[in-house]
Design goal:
heterodimer, A: mainly beta, Neuraminidase, five-stranded mixed β-sheet, 29 strands, globular, B: mainly alpha, Cytochrome Bc1 Complex, Chain D, domain 2, two-stranded antiparallel sheet, 57% helix, 4% strand
Amino acid sequence: MKKNKWIFILIPAAIVSVLVLSVASKNYTKKDAAFITVPSGFEIKMIANKLGAARHIVVTPQNDIYVRLAEPKNGKGTLFLHQVGDKAEVASGFGDFGGTGIAIKNGYLYASSNTAVYRFKLNDKDEIIDPNAKETVVNGLVYHRTHGPKAFTLDNDGNIYVNVGAYSNICSEFDPHGTGCPILDSAGGIWEFKADKLNQKQSDGVHFAWGLRNVVGLDWNQQDNRLFVMQHGRDALHDLFPKYYTVHQSALLPAECMYELKQGDNAGWPYLYYDWQTHKKMQGPEYGGDGKKEADSKYIDPVAAYPGHYAPDGLLFYTGNQFPEKYKNGAFIAFHGSWNRAPEPQAGYCVVFQPFKDGKPDGAWEVFADGFAGTAEQKNPGDALHRPVGLAQGPDGSLYITDDQGGSIYKVTYKK
Amino acid sequence: MSLKKLLVSVSILIFGVAGLQAQVQHTKSKHVSLAASIANGKKLYTQYCVTCHQADGKGVPAMNPPLINTTYVLGDKIKLIQIVLNGFNEDVQINGQTYSNNMTPHAFMKDQEIADVLTYVRNSFGNKASLVSATLVKNVRLINKK
């Protein structure tokens, strides 16, 4: 009898396993990217999914992929994938720390947690030599939960630029009387460190730029040799100051800003916000603003601005030759999509292209890839099927996009 | 904290809870009714809570915790009131997901407003739990100022 019982369990289990395996191995690439729109001549395919919360990504000269996970999955915080046909298959995972930032430079893979930047030595095929030989570049970065990810990029002169986000929306809990935000000496900015020096502390770095609430998307512009960052703008203008801002104004404002930074620049958080409709820096209501008063001109202007709460999580300067000429040296921006527009519908689950000329934004931005949310309207960001985060360029000029909601990687190619 | 202060706090707590239990039994006659409290709480939720916790109470993935089916909302009322008064900046795991956004203190809200908004949250989005009274909020606020 006992044996018979097992058969009743095992046979259905086997059937279920076959079904699950056939679903998992089916060619999902076309169907699951079908609702995402790209411009005429381009094609988008889902090459991997259900990886976990996929954040920033890098593609090696050999066309292999490294992707960071917000939280480690089975103890692995970074995945290594091989591309086979229209798919990317997970070959291995390493590093027990979750996080967002990743980059390859001078024979090393750099990866960040919420408190540190590590690196791993690569072989001549850009594969990790020893996943256990983790070197600590910077440790002890300020982290108090909110705006924790330490996104970073590197220049060509041996420096690494790390975001240390402000652990607050608008500093009001630390500066209730509006006399000056006290957390800006150690957060809300970009810190510069040496890329090849180990065990640096935050205080060993250069406080490169000030007054940036939180930066997730950032990239080094090779054309004018400058750092560009995307700031996540403040939340809750209506919630906190209903007498100055309607619900609708609060959904649209403030702008998500692109800044070009040089050492010592101050973008003015929390004292100001930027209005993308009037192109003006506005005094924040916590600091005497009333929705009409402009801010002190000593703070830098953004070089481009985008609608409120879109949440720019990825920035990539396109230097490839595959896409049409207009994309060369322009910027792709991955917008994660809003949550702070409630009770209005959410918006911005898309990848935008910003044309550039001679290292400056040139002309209006356009939506490049749209429809990641998978539904016509999003009330809650949790209902979106996919949310864009990271961007990378492959050796053949293909564009890669990650998604931390469905755990997918998309590949965009141009067919002519 | 001195022994005297401690005794005062404890007695406030005991009388607060006792008062609440008495109140639940006499809701209709003496105090704000559950229906009225929920109706007013909905307005307050729209004013102070909806952008982070969303209209459906589901919160925002990885950032703002959901208010549905969690002991933070349906359990100890004193702890819940303290979250509204003091804000919240601890790591919280609900159904295996962590949430990273800090909540700012909302002590500026009146006792009745906090009672109403929490009563609304405890009776919305599929939640069903007892009313939170302004008396209890008042008493928790006193303990809070110790």
